Predict the 3D structure of the following.
Amino acid sequence: MPDHPKQPRSPNQVRLGVIGCGSIALGRHLPILRQTPGCEVMAIADTDTKNRSAATRMCPGSIPFDSSEAMLDTAQLDAVVIATPNHTHAPVASACLAAGKHVYLEKPVATRREEIDGLLGAWKASGCLCVAGFNYRYLESVLKARKLIGEGALGKILTIQSVFCTPGESLPAWKASLDSGGGALLDYGSHHLDLFGFMLDDVPVSASVLETSRKSEGDSAWLTGCFTGGARYQSFFASAATDEDRIEILGTNGQLTLHRVGSRSLFRRDKSRTGLARRLARHWSMSALGQAASLRRATEASTTASLAAFIRAVRVGRYDSPEQPTLEDGVRCLRLLLDARDSDRSRETDAA
């Protein structure tokens, strides 16, 4: 990451632009940013007239632009939040960094391997902060899981299994295309792969994937791989299934389950250690993900924390905390997922 991030030009109030005002920005980012202390949404940009109008109504006083280029040329901003279609993330972020803006970039940070070096180069040359939108790091359950694992409560971690699915009933055209949306592998897999490494404080180093298409291109993906420490992971991602987001972590001394969709979370320890098992189970059931009554509330809470941390970081000119994901974290996940996809395609070519 850059050694000397730029200080914001307005230290007390971050002047913010939002680029991309589709369903995520209108339903999540803008409502949250309106209530986030220390920032003001000064400008919004979207190529769609209806989206621009809706965003302007939501943020009175903001200046609407029909392109990110026009925004960067005209508006006086300290930072931007980028929530454009996935295939535009890298070029838009690179332009914003080159213009001296701190960037909050939704995942995946890119969809094509050839974009990575240019994006990293723009970031390092800018001296600006670039935060990847891995908001689930801020879920209370994830932070507690990271703490328990770090304390050795589960023993040696052996394996992780996870599922992340949504119904995908009304996908926009860009998201239904593998080239522009990245498929379930990049859209959902990047979230879980980042969480695995974050909770275990370990690095995923290999992956293989099987992707299929039912309702849209690459809408289902089975991912397997391992970490430098020897643990293995196995995941299923889909944008045409039921709502589900669950991670199960198995160690030599216990098992941990995080379930974002429902109200359940659990830590179990070997029955021969009943006293410790009862204490940990009681602590976990009272303090973990069960506090969020629904997927939507859990997602909004983590996004609120993630955006607030970004604003704090911009105000002081440095990353907010160890859990704040940088562009490097986003690129690490992206490269591994693209490697897995390339490996899968190579196997198909060999078979043919």
Remarks:
- Residues 327-351 form the longest helix (25 residues).
- The chain has twelve helices and 13 strands.
- The CA atoms of residues 21 and 50 lie 9 Å apart.
- The longest strand covers residues 157-165.
